[in-house]
Amino acid sequence: MTVKNKQVITVLNKLGNRNARTGLGYDSSKKIKSMNIVVYDAVGNEIEKIKKKDFKDVSAVDGFSLYIDYRKLYYNYTPISYPYTIEFNYEYETSDTGSIPSWYFLSGFTVSVEKSHYSIVYADAGQKPVIYEKKSREFRI
After folding, report:
1. pTM, full prediction
2. DSSP one-letter string for 9-63
């Protein structure tokens, strides 16, 4: 399964820096194919482009497990002025097809969302499951 993600976050002041998350975990069953960040200033001019090779690759072990191969690629952007916008794009392949990635349109308090979209694209139309929907009035209480 291939997963693509694009997040665009505008940070208004230093308190918003924690919401500009730019990292992705991976292991032997999850291969990161592409990853980049584009940073824009307050009027939308591109300030910086960060490529996958610029990310830090660190072990994400818990410190007491005997063997865990989980790792994380991340980039800590240091802003030069506010507001700024970060566009974080990544694509990965995984052999895990038993679950689809979770999706949260709101990451927490004191944030707002302008647009949020989630879609599932099937390589073969025959793989698409049949989903039956019921209207709430069809349920007996």
Report:
1. 0.79
2. EEE-SGGGGGG---EEEEBTTEEEEEEEEEEE-TTS-EEEEEEGGGSEEEE---S
How far apart (Å, rounded) are the C-alpha atoms in residues 131 and 2? 22
Parallel, antiparallel or unpaired: strands 84-94 and 2-11: antiparallel
> 108: buried, middle or exposed (CB in 10 Å: 19+, 13-18, 0-12)?
exposed
Chain CA centroid to CA 26, Å: 12
| Phi, psi torsion values for 15, nearest 5 degrees | -65, -20
Let me know: does 72 contact 26? Beta carbons within 8 Å. yes
Q: What is the pLDDT of residues 13-52, one digit of tens each?
A: 999 898 888 899 998 889 999 999 999 999 999 999 999 9
